[in-house]
Amino acid sequence: MATILGIDLGSYSVKVARIEQGFRTVHLASIEEERVPEPGEGQPPPRRKHESSMNTETNQTEEPAVVDSLVDALLDRQMRALLSILGRQKIRAESCAIGISEDLTLRLVEMPLSDPKKVAQTLPFELAGQLMDDLEGQVVDQLLAEVPSGSSASLWLAASAKQSAVESRILSMSPLGLDPKLCGSTALATAALWVQSRPGQAPQKELPLWVIDLGHRSTHVCALAAHPKRPGQVLVQFARTIPRGGLHITEAIAKHISIGLIAAEKLKHDNGLSDFTNPRVAKVIREALRPLLRDLRQTLAAYASRFGNDPKALYVTGGTAQLHGIQDLLAEELGIAVQPLLPPDGATWLGPAVRGELPAGESMTFGEGGASRTYVSSTALVHRWPTGTAAVGLGLGAAYGGPNFNFRKGELAFRTDYALLREKAPLLAGFAVALVVCVGMWAYASLRQLEKESERLRLQLITESTALFGEARSDGRQVSNELQAALNQDKAQGQSIPQVSVLDLLDDISSAAPASNAAGPAHLDVIELHIRPKKTDLKATCGSAQYVDDLAANLAKIPCFRKVQKGKVLTLKNTGPDGKPIEVKQFSLEMETTCP
To answer: pTM higher than 0.70 for the full model?
Structure first.
């Protein structure tokens, strides 16, 4: 059974979902979470130079050098949190998947063609025109957002990520013994939760829907719809990352009440949007949420304008989604019923776990009672998984191949290992058995063919021996010995069979003729050649007199020739290959043939 890790590198905590994949089975084993250390907590973060930029929707006010330093320090701290989780698991993972939320640009692009290969070739130019920026050093990928009907035009969800950002995340995980098979977008991670594992299943009734992941620094919006031509599959119609999250609420509380961030974080989770506990805190949270709500309303209006209808359902997940009263506030502002994201109906990867609503009054306060929590595959996993949905989606995307980008392209392409062989071991074993059966059948057929050929030769031997000896013989070895004895007797009586043929002598003469000598190319041209039982005559032309001597010396070395005599060597004019006149030597050789 292969182990797949879905890793969500959040700015507040790192979440790891462990997926166990067997033959046609996928099971969510656990979700683990570790708080990202604060800067300066534990070992000091090393300084490295990485290029970085915030999402294109972020109003960037920091200096580039400051942003680079912060991103580097955050990545180092995330790796330390991930190392702590891996140390607790003590399980070697065959593959893993990570998500990127920063350094990523998402766009809806309408193309005049629908062939995915042609779209992949032309999309970078179209995307560069929209962003008014050069995409050199960027990794671009695309997903079909709407299946074209009738026309050749198509709608695609495109993404571009900094190659340096993708590379830095991959290299940072290498010391941990991990090589991500999938490096996708965190905004699209939850889409894999709605992919049906059984082909041909009916689409979910609540599609199209929205999933809003309320995180620490940013909020991800992912709009899903049923694939019209592939039952059980989904399309990501729209995705957006809004640079607002729980951190902005905490900073607003700390600013207006003049307390520290840790106390403001606790006050935020204890009070939420309840006016009964602390109206002042609830008012501050509502004011801090106003920019986010405005962006969500604009996003909903743009979605309805583009696709013609509102989503049927709206699900919230993430750490900030646990804030008391935030679901009611979102439903009031967006005009759509909001509910927490739980595993969809038919989620076979949960096994026998209960798929129900959150119990009334159950607290989902994030991070209290310790820096880390571990969930197992049980009812608690279903009820307490809001912060781990992105990690689960990334893991399921790597197992099922859910709709997400993969920025591991070109130089960063994933190079597989023996995990695929272990995963496909049953199929390979079946193939080996089938191969052995095929080889056995081939060997049996070959043996039958040889038996038929042996029977044919036996009948031919009987026929030939009957004509030769006057009686049938079936022992081939005995017939061969009798024939050899007869040949030896004829040889002793002087009636031997010739040992050398004319073709043999011709081949010996051809082999003895050198291609060239010290005087230059041979230019050998045979005019006459008479091979007789006692004598062989050769008349030819060559390039030099020295070549005649060399040829005579080589012919004298042939066992069947003796006393090679040279005739007169004459100088003649001849026409060369280029049409120009050349001088050649005409000669004749006489050789006594000794072979019978």
So the answer is: no
